[in-house]
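Aim 2 progress update. The chain analyzed this quarter is reproduced below.
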Amino acid sequence: MEFREEKINLFLFFIFSFIISWLLWLPSVLVFIKIIPSSPIQILGNFAVFGPFIAAFTLIFIKGKKNDAKKLFLSGWNIKFNKKWIVILFLPLITTGLSLIIVSILEPMNRLQYAPPIVMWIPNFIVYYFIGGPFTEEYGWRGYALERLESKFNALVSSLILGLIWGLWHIPLFFIEGTVQSNIPIYEFLLIQIITSIFYTWIVNNNRDKDGNINVFLAIIFHAMGNFSSMIFPYWVTTLGRWIFFIINVILVVIICIVYGMKTLSRNQNIIIEKSL
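Predicted structure tokens:
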């Protein structure tokens, strides 16, 4: 009965996340497809990233589990983790930087013209962290959804499912002028989101506490670093750059699956299995 209830909650989480975010993005989409003229109401789109955050905490509060809500929120501020993972958190800089180097050799052009000035890097990182997706999304995607998916599927399958849904959640952004997504074919973006989702699971599963709880802070930081890296190393401005980035990530994911195993993507297998039962 409890599993069935959590399955329903997971379904409701995805539905609520999509409805909240898509409704807030809707005015900008309608402007883009010329259904309505430009309007101040488009500012609502800036709050769309709160969809997963609101959905997750709403469902927890509805069940009357205030302590669970508190624990989830505090996990987004838990900076305690194994120091060796500091290197891993800079993985997006490595993959995006390498992608940019390779594509610049194969297809010369000044991609750095798309990157902001150095003086804007820190301010942009802070903005991206809190209202650009990482902080607002990861409480939902990894903090709420991943936990429940892994109670039914193995870590790899859970990552693939979540990555696809996470990617589809971004669809309105493909119809809003000025977004990164508006410059990328939907299927390419989805492939990148799906493969990237595996890295998130790998990182958080290897840093669960003794009770098997996820450290949402790591997911937030990894998300923020991914956005930041794409900003300063804009590999994504051409099709070739996006495919090179995708291939690099596929190679790394295959290595991770071989070394850590597809079942948990983690060394802490007993903790995760026990948490899932």
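The CA atoms of residues 211 and 271 lie 7 Å apart. The mean pLDDT is 87. These observations will guide the mutagenesis experiments scheduled for the next reporting period.
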